[in-house]
Structure formats: C-alpha cells, structure tokens
C-alpha cells in the first residue's frame, strides 16, 4: 500500500510541475542578450543587442537609470509605432528584434539600461544592461608625457649649467687669487 501511494504522489507532483512548466513556457517572454556589461569611449556608438521571443507582437520599452535619475528613452512595436523621447530622438536607433543603438555617447550616458518587453496579454519581462562611457585619455597623456620630458630636460640643463658656473666661478676665483699673490708680495715688499 505505502510504496504505491508514494508513487502516486510523486506522479501527481511530476504532472503538476510539468503542467506548470508548459503554462510558464506558453506565456514566457525570453530576452537573450550576448553581452550585458559594456564599456565604450566617448563619442562612439553602442548597441544593446537583444533577441526577443514571445507570443504575438510585443511592446519594447527602454529606460535609462543612473543614481536617482530614471528616464524613458523610447518605446516601439516591431512593425508598429515608434516613440522615442525628444531627448534621445537623434541618437537612438530602434531594431525590430528589440535591440537599441545609441550613438555619440557622452559621459552622462553611463548607467543602467533596462528593456521591458510587454506582451498583449499584459505579462512583461525586464532585462538590464550596464554601460560605462569612458573619457579618452590617451592623447592627453601623450601631451602630458611630452611636457614632463621637456620640463625634466630643462631642470637637468639648469642643474648642469649651475654646476658648471659654480665650477667656473671657483676656478676664476682661484686663478685671480693666484695672480694677485705675487702682486701682494710686491706691494708687501715695496716698503722695504
Ligand atoms: C538584433 O538586430 C540587430 C540589427 O539587425 C543585430 O545587429 C543584432 O545582432 C541582433 N541581436 C541579436 C541578439 O540577434
Ligand atoms: C510617447 O512617449 C511620451 C513620453 O515618453 C508619452 O507621453 C506619449 O504618450 C507616448 N506616445 C505614444 C503613442 O506612445
């Protein structure tokens, strides 16, 4: 009796979880993204690449978040409307697979980007991306290096000149002392 009842319970549980899984699959929105953490230099472009699968035509919405700031970037439907906020109008590119391109990056674009996919049924799913926009320091560093080398050479030159001048001064002093010595002897001797 006992083993049979246990088997029944297990079977029921399995059936239930399988049913739940299938139901879940039917209403599931999947957002696949190859990379969710991106770093780009200033003025370059970025593509938040996603591939969505869901039932029917989804509504795609992208939101920007940084600290306490939360901004709507835009929303669109593949083959339907496209509504990009004025702020991003000339920098945002929308794709039917849900991806969003952002061009002419600025430091202030650093932050979180969230895509929300909503099905007609009302169920939705989010996926987050992190973008870091970096200042290009390379050229500045080159100038700084050249400046530092120039400054170091100047300092070196000044040090060497001072050392040479000091030596020359000592020599001249010694030479003058040596030249004055006989004269002194003469003047010393004169009264005699
Ligand atoms: C989505 O579409 C864009 C443009 O066609 C493409 O570059 C990108 O690779 C696609 N993303 C995925 C994850 O397939
Ligand atoms: C477009 O977006 C703005 C603000 O982001 C919103 O007020 C407006 O209702 C949207 N229009 C459509 C057609 O979705």
TrEMBL record:
<keyword id="KW-0812">Transmembrane</keyword>
<protein>
    <recommendedName>
        <fullName>V-set and transmembrane domain-containing protein 5</fullName>
    </recommendedName>
</protein>
<keyword id="KW-0472">Membrane</keyword>
<keyword id="KW-1133">Transmembrane helix</keyword>
<dbReference type="InterPro" id="IPR013783">
    <property type="entry name" value="Ig-like_fold"/>
</dbReference>
<feature type="transmembrane region" description="Helical">
    <location>
        <begin position="141"/>
        <end position="164"/>
    </location>
</feature>
<keyword id="KW-0732">Signal</keyword>
<dbReference type="GO" id="GO:0046847">
    <property type="term" value="P:filopodium assembly"/>
</dbReference>
<dbReference type="GO" id="GO:0005886">
    <property type="term" value="C:plasma membrane"/>
</dbReference>
<keyword id="KW-0325">Glycoprotein</keyword>
<dbReference type="GO" id="GO:0030424">
    <property type="term" value="C:axon"/>
</dbReference>
<dbReference type="InterPro" id="IPR036179">
    <property type="entry name" value="Ig-like_dom_sf"/>
</dbReference>
<dbReference type="InterPro" id="IPR015631">
    <property type="entry name" value="CD2/SLAM_rcpt"/>
</dbReference>
<feature type="transmembrane region" description="Helical">
    <location>
        <begin position="12"/>
        <end position="31"/>
    </location>
</feature>
<dbReference type="GO" id="GO:0030425">
    <property type="term" value="C:dendrite"/>
</dbReference>
<dbReference type="GO" id="GO:1904891">
    <property type="term" value="P:positive regulation of excitatory synapse assembly"/>
</dbReference>
């Amino acid at each position: 009796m006992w083993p049979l009842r246990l088997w029944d319970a297990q079977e029921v549980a399995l059936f239930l979880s399988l049913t739940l899984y299938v139901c879940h699959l039917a209403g599931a929105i999947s957002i696949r993204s190859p990379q969710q953490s991106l770093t780009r230099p200033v003025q370059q472009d970025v593509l938040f690449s996603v591939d969505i699968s869901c039932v029917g035509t989804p509504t795609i919405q992208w939101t920007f978040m940084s600290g306490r700031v939360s901004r709507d970037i835009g929303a669109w439907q593949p083959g339907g409307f496209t509504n990009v906020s004025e702020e991003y109008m000339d920098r945002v590119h929308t794709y039917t697979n849900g991806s969003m391109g952002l061009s002419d990056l600025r430091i202030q674009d650093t932050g979180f980007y969230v895509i929300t996919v909503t099905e007609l049924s009302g169920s939705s799913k989010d996926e987050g991306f992190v973008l870091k926009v970096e200042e290009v320091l390379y050229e500045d560093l080159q100038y700084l290096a050249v400046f530092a080398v120039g400054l170091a050479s100047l300092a070196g030159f000044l040090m060497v000149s001072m050392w040479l001048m000091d030596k020359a001064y000592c020599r001249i002093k010694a030479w003058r002392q040596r030249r004055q010595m006989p004269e002194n002897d003469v003047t010393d001797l004169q009264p005699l």
